[in-house]
Structure formats: structure tokens, C-alpha cells
Amino acid sequence: MDCLVAGANFLLEVVHQEAFTYMGDQKQFVQIDPNDLYPYLLVNIGSGVGMIKVEGEGKFERVSGTSIGGGTFWGLGKLLTKCKSFDELLELSYRGNNRAVDMLVGDIYGGMDYSKIGLSSTAIASSFGKAISDNKERGDYKPEDIARSLLRMISNNIGQISYLNALRFGLKRIFFGGFFIRRHPFTMDTLSVAVNFWSKGEAKAMFLRHEGFLGGVGAFMSSDKHGLKELLANQVVQRSPSKLSFAVDKTLHGSPDGEFNGDESIECSVYAA
């Protein structure tokens, strides 16, 4: 956890366009002022979910969490479908329609919105709720629909709990990371919609371009004896063409759209200060 927080702090303070929002297939980078970064909530979604209030360098506290996380998605998905891997299950969910499995507000109120309490007809009233009333066996449901419902159920739950904890501690920023995300569009979009819904648009879910490397970067930084953070900060400001640790221009800055080519190698030359 020390390394996770150290890696997030480093990337958010030093790397240009590290944070971004993603909703409705729209990716938008967020400029973070290093002098106004703290405090923030870091939500790490692995097998379970850890929620960490970060207040500065080396100052953090795990304030909450939930056992309903990536392991839940993979475990239940493996039991309910024939998928053999996490990525296979995610790919399957993209082809599904959760409305075939979930009970929506419109299913309860005759296809209408429940505008009196601010619920649209397409809001999920009960995840997997249609399985109660439908005269069907499990084999009658499409695996992709089950996977989609499962992903939405877990992502919505994590988004809600994250926002409530941010509200609890008065935190204005929520960053999501961990194995569950890995820049998968639908996962990010669902988390964003959940945070937007529960906060009534006052909060936004944010993601990190290098979220898969938080622990590794933090571990490296914790053993750094050469003031690499200061060197990289100067490199970002000066945009010097000279090569530096992490090959800043190629690796940490990435391509113009912030995406990596799968064939790109990551250069990690370390130079003494």
C-alpha cells in the first residue's frame, strides 16, 4: 500500500496529462495542480476493493473497502459462464445486454420514469431481478447478458461506495485504479456513471494513464537515491531532448492520445544524478 500511494502521488505530481475522466465514450484529460492535489481518495480495485484517503507524501489511511471487487466479478462469472479468464469474461460482457437480466425501474412502473423521486425508466432497480419473475432456467439466459449484468452490478456498487466515502471525508477527487480497470472502456464508463448519479453530478470519477504501474513505480521511487523525482519534474518543465530515467517523452508521456502500442518496449535506463 505504501508503494501504491507513492506511485500515484508521483505520477499525479510529475506526469503531464496523467489523470482523465471517461464517460459516454468521451475521454477528457484533467489538469491537476500539484499544489492542490491533496487530499484525495484512491480506490484500488483488485480482488477486493481498498479505499485510501491520501493526504500527502507518506500520509495516508485506508478508510474503507468492500469484498465485492474484481475477484467477485471473475469468480461469479466463472461459475455462471464458461469463461476461463478475466479478459474473456470482460470481452463477453461487451456483447451483452443487461436489460435481459436486470429489473429496471420501467419494468416496475409500466415502462415509465419515476420522476417524482428522480429515477429514469432505464435505471436498474434490481440486479438480476428479472430472473425472479421470468419462467426460465439458467441455461435460457445468454452468457453475455449475465456477464454484462454482473459487471454493471459490481461497478455500480463500487462507484456508490467510493462517492459516499469521498463525501464522508470531504474529498473532492476520486481516482480509480487496479487490475479490474486496465483502461477497459465499459468498466470506466460504468464507474463514472455511478459516481455521477450518486453525487448528482457534483463529483467525477478519474482514472490514471499509468494505473497498472502504480505499485511498481512506487517501489522504484521508494528506493531512489538520486533525486529522480526532482529530475523528472525539471524534465517535464524544460522539455529537454536529453534522455532520462523512464524515457519520459516516450514512456510516461506516451503517444499523443495517451495510449500505448502493444509492440512498444518500455525503456528504463537509470542515470546517476
UniProtKB/TrEMBL annotation:
<dbReference type="GO" id="GO:0015937">
    <property type="term" value="P:coenzyme A biosynthetic process"/>
</dbReference>
<dbReference type="GO" id="GO:0005634">
    <property type="term" value="C:nucleus"/>
</dbReference>
<dbReference type="GO" id="GO:0005829">
    <property type="term" value="C:cytosol"/>
</dbReference>
<dbReference type="GO" id="GO:0005524">
    <property type="term" value="F:ATP binding"/>
</dbReference>
<dbReference type="GO" id="GO:0004594">
    <property type="term" value="F:pantothenate kinase activity"/>
</dbReference>
<dbReference type="InterPro" id="IPR043129">
    <property type="entry name" value="ATPase_NBD"/>
</dbReference>
<keyword id="KW-0418">Kinase</keyword>
<dbReference type="Pfam" id="PF03630">
    <property type="entry name" value="Fumble"/>
</dbReference>
<keyword id="KW-0808">Transferase</keyword>
<protein>
    <submittedName>
        <fullName>Pantothenate kinase 2 isoform C</fullName>
        <ecNumber>2.7.1.33</ecNumber>
    </submittedName>
</protein>
<dbReference type="InterPro" id="IPR004567">
    <property type="entry name" value="Type_II_PanK"/>
</dbReference>
